[in-house]
Amino acid sequence: MQNYPIFVDLKNQPCLVVGGGEVAARKIRLQLSAGAKMTVISPELSKTVRNEMLDKIKHLPREFQDSDIKGYRLITAATDDPDVNRRVSELAQSLNIPVNVVDQPELCSFITPSIVDRGVVTIAISTGGGAPVMARDLRGKVEALIPSNYSHMAQAMKDNREKAKTVLPDEDQRRRFWDKVLEGEIAELYLTGRLEQGAQALAAAFESTEYTKEDGIGEVWLVGAGPGDPDLLTFRALRLMQQCDVVLHDALVSDEILNLCRRDADRIYVGKRRANHAVPQEGINQLLVKLAKQGKRVVRLKGGDPFIFGRGGEEIEELFEEKIPFQVVPGITSASGCATYAGIPLTHRDHAQSVTFVAGHLKDGYADLDWPHLANPSQTLVIYMGLIGLPVICEKLIEHGLSEDMPIAIVEKGTRPDQRVLIGTLATMPELIKTEKVQAPTLIIVGSVVSLQGKLSWM
Ligand code: SAH
User: How far apart are CA 106 and CA 112, in angstroms?
Assistant: First the structure.
C-alpha cells in the first residue's frame, strides 16, 4: 500500500489555503463543505472564490509570509509560483502540519483522493498521486454503482448505532442484524427514498426476532478459490468471502485472494503442503463443525475446485452428519486454469478426445495407478501432485506403451504472475525438472495437445 488512507474531521478546524485561483477554489470549497474554518492568503481572488465563498472565509489579501504557517490543522498550497509552493511545504513539514501542494506529489505529506460523496458515506479513491485520470475514471464507475440514496441508509444506521449496541450487545449479532437490514426490504425502502417507511421498518426490526434472534448455528461455505489469479474467482465466491466471520485457508490460496475476504474476518491457516500438514484433515473437519456450532459463518477456502482432489467431499460429509448448513462453490480447477494460461487445449479434435485427471503422489515411492488406461495416446493426461513422482510416472507411461517422444508440459505456479511452463518429452522431462529447479505447485500435462503450446501460448 503506497499511502495510508484516513478521514480527517475538519469541523471548526483552522485550515489554510495559500492561493486564490480556480484550483484553490476547489480545495476551499471542499474543505468548507467538511466544516473547516478557512483562511485564504492571496493578493487576488478568482471570481469563483469572490462570488461563492468570500463570506465564509477569512481572506488575507497579500503574499504568503513564513510566519503565516502556524496554527493550522491542514495546509494547502495552490499558487502558480513554484517557489512559494515549495516554501509552504517546507515550513509546514518542519512543524509536522499535513500539507498538500496541488499537482506536486513530491511536496505533499498528504494527498487528496477522488471522492464519491453520499452524505455520511464518503468513498475516497487514490492512485498515490500517480494516475489522477484513472482515479477519476474509477470514481465514475463507483458513482454509477452506488445510488445517491445510500446516504439515507447510512444516516439511519449512524443514528441507530447506539440503540443497536444496547439492543444487541454482541458484536457478531449486531453485524448480522445490519447485514439483514442491508440485504432486505428495509434497505430497499431507504434506497428508493421512502424514508419514513424505512424508519418505521427499522424501528420494528429492533423488536422483531426475525432480525435480532441469535442464530444458534452458523454455516460453512466450501469455496473454490481457483488456481491463483484472483480474476478467476466466481462472483459467488467473492460475495461469500466478503460476508464470512472466519476463513480457513490452505497453502495454495494466494495472499492476493485472501485479502479479498472481509477485513475483520479471522484467518486460520490449515495449510497442507505434502507431508507437512499444519492441521490434519480430521482436525480441519472438526474445526469447521466447532466454528459453525459457535454460530460463525465460515469460509473454507480451497485452491482450485473443492471437489477435485480437494477433499471437499470429506469435509461436507462431516457437516452433513452434524446437521450444519453448508454450501459448496465450485472453483476453476488448476487443470483448467494452468492449461488455459499455458496455451494448451486439454481436448482437440485432432489430438485428444478425452482428458483424465489423476493424482500422482507416491505411496512408499510407488505410484499405484491404472497405467494401461493412462498410457493412451489419444487422451490428455493431467496429473495433480505429481512433481515428486514425475520420474516414475514418465517411466511407467513409456513401459505401458506411450512413445518416449510424447510431449509433456509442466506448469509451475499456474495463472500467477510468476507462472512458468516447461515443455519436454517423457524421456527428457525427469532431467529438465532438476536442471530448471522446478518448485511446487506444479501441474503435469501429458499428450499430443502439448505440441500446440508453441503456437497457442497467448499470455
Ligand atoms: N483442488 C485443487 C487441487 C488440489 S491438489 C484444484 O482443483 O486445482 C494440489 C495440486 O493442485 C498441486 O499439487 C498441483 O498439482 C495442483 N495445483 C494447484 N494450484 C496450482 C497452480 N497454481 N499451478 C500448478 N498446479 C497447481
Answer: 13
